[in-house]
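Justification of resources, computational component.

The compute hours requested in this renewal are based largely on the per-chain cost of generating structure records like the one below. Each record pairs the submitted sequence with a full structure-token output. That output is archived, and it is also reused by downstream analysis tasks.
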Amino acid sequence: MAGVIQDQYELGQSVKKSLSELGQEIRLDLSLKPNSNLEAGTIFGTVKDTQGNPVPGATIKIMDKDHNPLAHTVTGPDGSYIISPFPPGPEYHIYAQADGYLLAEQLPFALLPKQQVEKNFILTRDPDALLSIIAGEVMDNQTPPHAVKGAIVNLYQVDELGHETLIAVTYTNEFGQFTFRDLQKGNYIVRISGLGYIPVAISVVISADSTIAKVIATLNVDPQASKGTISGVITDNNNVPIADADVVLYRVEADGSLTPIAVTRTNDEGVYLFTKVPQGDYKIKSTKSITI
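The structure output for this chain reads:
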């Protein structure tokens, strides 16, 4: 039985030269590179769900030891995949993901020259896959518009009778952006307020699963707002300033309840500042989180 023929070198191409005279002689040399695929290996496998059913259309991703992306492919109708040729290496990471499923990862592996490595996956359903997101951006009414940082964004769910229930609170970042995650289908109202601005309310309807609802809000400067400021220093129990601490400004209502109206962070000296604060009674709350 005849063997399989493989190219020992990569197909090369020389530079162009012309024969323009009768009897002319020219020289065309070419340096061929070894065929790197001769040492390449193969990575293959299947992707199934927890019931043993194949998952077609799943993405298989391979990264190096520093998680730089190297290659990807998609499973076929039977949930199978193959990545070949693939260069040998001491450490690779491989992942699988499909719509509606959690990201799955296999243990890191090495690939030897001409080796075939099988990597099979079992994907678990993502319980939050059908939930939705409201993502927004808050700008002022100047020309050009500027992002409103530290605005309070309240999310209310509206029932069939029109009753509103506060379900989440967040704050805009330095780009005026905010998000609310893990939302069910339904009707919502986003209420936004910022120091020195007239509050706005925007209705949002989430009618389908896995929706990303976009909210663009413009805050108009409140001509009645005072130009007061509130500032201070956040310290620990040893009177050492705390840098990068979160500081929330609350308005004290007539009944003694507290309404958050702005948020900021301290500088390296523990100093914070709120500007364009209307007349009224206020308190602050502050803390600092760490990652452990």
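The chain has a mean pLDDT of 90. Residues 136 and 215 are 4 Å apart (CA to CA).
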